[in-house]
Amino acid sequence: MIKLDNVHKAFGGKKVLRGVTLEVPQGESMVIIGGSGTGKSVTLKCILGLVEPDAGTIVVAGQRMGRGDREAFLSRFGMLFQGAALFDSLPVWQNVAFRLLRGHQKRPHSEARAIAIEKLRRVGLGPETADLFPAELSGGMQKRVGLARAIAADPSIIFFDEPTTGLDPIMAGVINDLIREIVVEMGATAITITHDMSSVRAIADDVAMLHDGVIKWTGTVGEMDGCDDPYVQQFIHGRAEGPIETLR
Amino acid sequence: MNAAILTRPLAALGRPVLAGLGALGRVVLYTLAVVSHLVRPPFYFREFARALLSIGWLSLPVVGLTAVFTGGALALQIYAGGSRFSAESVVPAIVAIGMVRELGPVLGALMVAARVASSIAAEIGTMKVTEQIDALVTLSTDPLKYLATPRVLAATLSLPVLVAVGDAIGIMGGWLVGTSRLGFNSSVYLTNTADFLEPWDVTSGLLKGAVFGFIIALMGCYHGMNSGRGAQGVGKATKQAVVMASVLILASNYLLTEIFFSA
Ligand SMILES: Nc1ncnc2c1ncn2[C@@H]1O[C@H](COP(=O)(O)OP(=O)(O)O)[C@@H](O)[C@H]1O
Ligand SMILES: [Mg+2]
User: Fold this and answer.
1) Which of A15, A36, A42 for mutating ligand 1's site (highest number of atoms within 8 Å of CB)?
2) Distance A115 CA to ligand 2 centre (A)
3) What is the mean predicted confidence (pLDDT) over B47-54?
4) Which of B46, B47, B216 is nearest to B115 (CA)?
5) Which of the four, A193, B159, B189, B262, has the lowest number of CB atoms within 10 Å?
6) What is the pTM (predicted TM-score) of this model?
């Protein structure tokens, strides 16, 4: 479904991705783990075409990135950004229903609002939040609104960039279950970035570990604990000693 | 070694020139893209209405205050200058002509640039930094069409109206000072103004206003969209938007004055 082959990306002189190769089959939930600043978000942005890779190829559903109708391509995607990235000039429900209020997927106003309120409910937010503005919400609530927006138009490919960061453990559990549900119920293909090992276990079919600009290890979530890759072991046990330098 | 002595200053000279040309090219391409979106659907009407309100309507106080004080000062100066030739009677005509042809459009636009180019650049720059622009793209919405085109159109249409209001208030400022401080008869002052002012004086100023409005919004959007990362990046983008808008307003004002009034 999604295939990255030898993707490189540098910002200025700083090489972030140095040959990322990754494959996510249709309907699978892939979780990417790795230290902060290793280029996990950049990887997702490359797939979405928000960042242009310097080299390498990205193929989504048999279609090479950058070819064909971009809008049609993106209409199948949902993305939760790391910082939620809500539009602060619009009330919450219009954020969630953004896609449903304009363009090809436009619905009547009342229908779009009803869908928005239903999606908000699924991420644990009541209808009273619908008419608030993003600035009036806490960080964790903004994140959940971002999640509701990502799933609003029932996308077939969904990316979650640190969905549970900034949430309390209970709400994190709710969100993990929701993501799992979306993948199972809607048959969506998902890539999730997280540092949270309980998220990994709840969400992942497959796990990939990004370090030093390459995928160091990839396998199923079951193989993860038993694997002898020192990078993965250090990461999942949160050890200070190991091959991953902690002083950078 | 010898070659380096020759090439280094050349390179030092060439690099900023090339960078400048590159920047110019990007601005031109950006301008063409913004304009081309005007005629390609969809048109985001709500964004346009919001921009009209914040750029046009909410700029009225600033433009009005600028005009009334400028008109008043102009009357005092022209009276002082005119009295050297015993030509104090030109005050109404010259105040009106000076206001509608030059000072109304230019000072009004500079004030609006300070107010609007900065706020557009800060808003769009913040959207860039907080990934809202990326979010727009992933929601299948072209940021240029959604953010830039409505604002540029709103500013281009608003500025002539603001200039017209400024013209009227500026002339009124001159009249206030003329009648209260310089001893002009009120009705004489007004007929004098009306008799000497020609339609083209006013129209040319309004056309200038449209061009300035275009420049203001374009610079705000361009610099916001190309904002660097973090709060510092937004600050820099905001400053650049105001500086570039102001410089381009003054430069294009000279050019337009040449075109409109020379020969
Ligand atoms: N637009 C950009 N311009 C310059 N550097 C960037 C940009 N986006 C990301 N980076 C850099 O790339 C590196 C990886 O970033 P990111 O993918 O956000 O890390 P993470 O793995 O924590 O998500 C960071 O060092 C970041 O500073
Ligand atoms: Mg990240």
Assistant:
1) A42
2) 29
3) 94
4) B216
5) B262
6) 0.90
Q: Tokens 């994140």: give the residue.
A: A143
Task: Give the CA distances from residue B9 to residues B5, B6, B15, B19, B20, in Å, rounded to whole numbers and listed in that order.
Answer: 7, 6, 10, 16, 17
Please tell me if the CB atom of residue A50 comes closer than 6 angstroms to any atom of ligand 1.
no
Asked if pLDDT for residue B70 goes beyond 90, the answer is: yes
Picking from A33, A31, A34, A23, the residue whose alpha carbon sits closest to that of residue A1 is A23
Kindly state if the Cβ of A38 falls inside 6 Å of ligand 1.
yes
Give backbone dihedrals phi and psi of B43, rounded to 5 degrees, phi first: -110, 125
DSSP string, B36-92: HHHTSS---HHHHHHHIIIIIGGGHHHHHHHHHHHHHHHHHHHHHHHHTTT-GGGHH
* DSSP secondary structure letters along B137-198: HHTT--HIIIIIHHHHHHHHHHHHHHHHHHHHHHHHHHHHHHHHTS---HHHHHHHHHHH--
Of A81, A83, A99, which has the smallest distance from its Cβ to B140's Cβ?
A: A99
Extents of the domains making up chain A: 1-76+155-248, 86-154
Average pLDDT, chain B: 92
**Topology (CATH level 3) of domain A1-76+155-248:** Rossmann fold (3.40.50)
Cα of B97 vs its chain's centroid, Å:
19
In chain B, domain spans: 44-261
Q: What pLDDT was estimated at residue B95? A: 92
Q: In sequence order, which residues have a C-beta less than 8 Å from that of residue A209 and are 6 or more positions away?
A: A32, A33, A34, A215, A216, A217, A218, A229, A231, A232, A235
At A71 the pLDDT is 77
pLDDT in tens, B182-227: 989 999 999 999 888 999 999 999 999 999 999 999 999 999 999 9
Percent of chain B with pLDDT over 70: 99
pLDDT band at B42 (very low <50, low <70, confident <90, very high): confident
pLDDT(A66) > 80: no
Does residue B118 contact residue B220 with C-beta atoms inside 8 Å?
A: yes
C-alpha A241/C-alpha B33 separation (Å) is 53
Sign of CA dihedral A199, A204, A207, A213: negative
**Residue A68 in this model has a pLDDT that exceeds 80:** no
A156–chain B Cβ distance below 8 A for any pair: no
